[in-house]
Amino acid sequence: MKKIAFILSLVFLATGAAWAQTNSLPTSGNVGIGTTNPQAGLHVITTATLADGSIATAILGNAFNHYTYFGSAIGGRIRGSNEGYLVLESYPTGTNNTLYLNTTSNGNISIGNGGGKVIVGSLGVNFSDNSYKLFVQTGIRTEKIKVDLTSQWSDFVFHKEYSLKPLDEVEQFIQSNKHLPDIPSAEQVKANGIDLGEMDAKLLQKIEELTLYIIEQNKTIIEQGKKIAELEKKMN
After folding, report:
1. Which first-to-last residue range defines the signal peptide (predicted)?
2. Residues 228 and 158 in one domain
């Protein structure tokens, strides 16, 4: 009997040593740690720690469908592929559908290496308005800005077919409306703002019209000067 017990003990010790050395797992089914009902290939009901900083966690494959999920309802996820894609996204089944990038202690967020591109559908700073690609509530300060004009520039004023309003009509319009023709009123600007490119074109239009008025006045002054000179010559 003692011999049988001794032999069984050796068998158990050998089996345990083999398990410790190979750490083999079943080739099929799910493996659970902290659960008797695993729902995935590896289901861990606790935290996992990588003690060595040189250790990497890899999800191998070529397809763009390798996910890391957060939350029981798949509220957020990270996905990527070996083609250089890495996406952090709020999954549509989540309730908030919001992605936050928190700053470090110095308050900086860096995206790219200086030569990359940041593609954003719509961006609001201190404000949310999806009708604009970029909306900054309190204003911006910059050293340079370039506006691409979608409408025509104002040089049409110098075309022969352009009809310049007489100054008396302009005066009547100003007295009635309290602003220049073709320029929005203060109420309109307050309600709708202004388009920089369009407003610059309108202001240039008024400058060009003013230039034409000055040219006409100068011609009139020259003609009047000639007539005055002729009258003085006759009087003398």
Report:
1. 1-20
2. yes
Contacts of 77 (CB under 8 A, 6+ apart): 67, 68, 69, 70, 89, 91
- Cα–Cα distance measured from residue 14 to residue 151, given in angstroms and rounded to the nearest whole number: 86
pLDDT tens per residue across all 236 residues of the chain: 555 555 555 445 555 544 444 445 667 788 888 888 888 788 877 776 666 655 555 555 555 566 666 665 556 667 666 666 677 766 666 566 666 666 556 666 655 555 556 666 666 776 666 777 778 888 888 899 888 877 789 999 999 999 999 999 999 999 999 999 999 999 999 999 998 889 999 999 999 999 999 999 999 999 999 999 999 988 87
Nearest alpha carbon to residue 43 among 27, 59, 31, 25 = 31
**Residue 49 belongs to some domain of the structure:** no
> Quick check: is 173 in a domain?
yes
| Reported pTM | 0.53
Provide the residue range defining the domain that includes 68: 59-101
Q: Give domain status of residue 110, yes or no.
A: no
The answer to whether 81 touches 68, Cβ cutoff 8 Å, is: no
